[in-house]
């Protein structure tokens, strides 16, 4: 079990991303850092050469190829300049020691499995080395989201830890003779930790926000491209659809995982509020009541909202908006399907 946990730890997944060309600050040694950056640049050069070769042979699907090209290079550059989206700086500041990241691990496995299935399918139909290269590129593009997913998942775990700690501390405070003072101290410590978590989550996230925005902006063209492939009756599109459709589904799922995790964070915050509200039922003095009400006001005035430069919020509303947008475009394409005949 310990071996499995170590294999699926944060650093192991980041090293796996590093192998695919996504840089992170693997060591404080300057030589190791230079070598790692040089390796990532080399991977980027090789894959860009493959992209240009792909433009020559995949001219029937230029949209998906072009979007992949943009996303890949944006992720390479962002990770180079942000040291892997500052994930390990985030971990140090948030004081996260538990290596269990089940959602990020599941997403990583899902990405790899989807590519293996695509590879098996292509191997049974029309295998060639260049197509294998593009499957690898697709996997790299999808894996680029894992750092963001881990950031949200770890933040969710820390918020859950805070909620559990508050429940235990407030429950234990009743056993002391000076329980009112102990409770107020615990409550103050809880609020300080809560604000610290919010501050850490909002630090050094420019690269992550840019990549989230890029994912959202390229999602609709991908879906429109898939819709065109479905509605087109040209020979050879079916095999491309069988490859592109699961790729797009996985890409959309991975893109929306941070929004789902954000909703889980808000659920933990609501549970934290409820825990504090329950103290009103047993409080006796006005001082204690005022402290509880002040805590609730602070939580109300400092909610968790991960906004991408005030354009949209990464939460459940983003999931609904993306699904609604996809549905509208698909319905519109079906209505005008006769133009593709």
UniProtKB/TrEMBL annotation:
<dbReference type="InterPro" id="IPR013604">
    <property type="entry name" value="7TM_chemorcpt"/>
</dbReference>
<keyword id="KW-0807">Transducer</keyword>
<keyword id="KW-1003">Cell membrane</keyword>
<feature type="transmembrane region" description="Helical">
    <location>
        <begin position="6"/>
        <end position="24"/>
    </location>
</feature>
<keyword id="KW-0675">Receptor</keyword>
<comment type="function">
    <text>Gustatory receptor which mediates acceptance or avoidance behavior, depending on its substrates.</text>
</comment>
<dbReference type="Pfam" id="PF08395">
    <property type="entry name" value="7tm_7"/>
</dbReference>
<comment type="similarity">
    <text>Belongs to the insect chemoreceptor superfamily. Gustatory receptor (GR) family.</text>
</comment>
<feature type="transmembrane region" description="Helical">
    <location>
        <begin position="103"/>
        <end position="124"/>
    </location>
</feature>
<feature type="transmembrane region" description="Helical">
    <location>
        <begin position="31"/>
        <end position="51"/>
    </location>
</feature>
<keyword id="KW-1133">Transmembrane helix</keyword>
<keyword id="KW-0472">Membrane</keyword>
<dbReference type="GO" id="GO:0007165">
    <property type="term" value="P:signal transduction"/>
</dbReference>
<dbReference type="GO" id="GO:0005886">
    <property type="term" value="C:plasma membrane"/>
</dbReference>
<protein>
    <recommendedName>
        <fullName>Gustatory receptor</fullName>
    </recommendedName>
</protein>
<feature type="transmembrane region" description="Helical">
    <location>
        <begin position="210"/>
        <end position="231"/>
    </location>
</feature>
<dbReference type="GO" id="GO:0050909">
    <property type="term" value="P:sensory perception of taste"/>
</dbReference>
<feature type="transmembrane region" description="Helical">
    <location>
        <begin position="130"/>
        <end position="150"/>
    </location>
</feature>
<keyword id="KW-0812">Transmembrane</keyword>
């Amino acid at each position: 079990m310990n071996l499995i946990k170590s294999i699926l730890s944060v650093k192991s997944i980041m090293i796996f991303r590093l192998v695919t060309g996504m840089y992170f600050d693997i060591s404080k040694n300057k030589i190791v850092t230079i070598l790692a950056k040089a390796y990532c640049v080399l991977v980027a050069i090789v894959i860009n050469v493959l992209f240009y070769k792909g433009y020559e042979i995949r001219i029937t699907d230029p949209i998906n190829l072009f979007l992949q090209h943009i996303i890949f290079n944006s992720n390479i550059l962002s990770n180079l300049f942000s040291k892997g989206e500052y994930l390990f700086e985030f971990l140090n500041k948030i004081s996260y020691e538990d290596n269990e990241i089940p959602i990020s691990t599941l997403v990583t496995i899902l990405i790899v499995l989807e590519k293996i299935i695509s590879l098996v399918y292509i191997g049974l139909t029309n295998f060639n080395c260049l197509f294998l290269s593009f499957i690898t590129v697709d996997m790299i593009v999808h894996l680029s989201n894992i750092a963001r997913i881990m950031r949200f998942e770890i933040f969710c775990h820390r918020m859950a830890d805070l909620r559990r700690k508050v429940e235990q501390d407030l429950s234990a405070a009743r056993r002391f003779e000076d329980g009112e003072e102990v409770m107020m101290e615990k409550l103050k410590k809880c609020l300080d930790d809560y604000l610290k978590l919010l501050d850490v989550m909002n630090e050094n996230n420019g690269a992550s926000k840019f990549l989230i925005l890029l994912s959202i902006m390229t999602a609709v063209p991908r879906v429109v491209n898939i819709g065109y492939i479905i509605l087109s009756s040209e020979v050879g599109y079916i095999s491309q659809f069988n490859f592109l459709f699961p790729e797009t589904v996985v890409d959309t799922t991975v893109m929306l995982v941070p929004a789902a995790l954000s909703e889980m964070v808000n659920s933990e915050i609501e549970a934290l509020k409820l825990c504090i509200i329950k103290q009103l039922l047993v409080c006796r003095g006005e001082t204690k009541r005022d402290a509880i009400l002040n805590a609730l006001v602070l939580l109300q005035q400092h909610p968790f909202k991960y906004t991408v430069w005030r354009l949209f919020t990464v939460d459940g509303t983003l999931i609904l908006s993306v699904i609604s947008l996809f549905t509208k475009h698909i319905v519109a394409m079906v209505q005008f399907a006769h133009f593709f005949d």
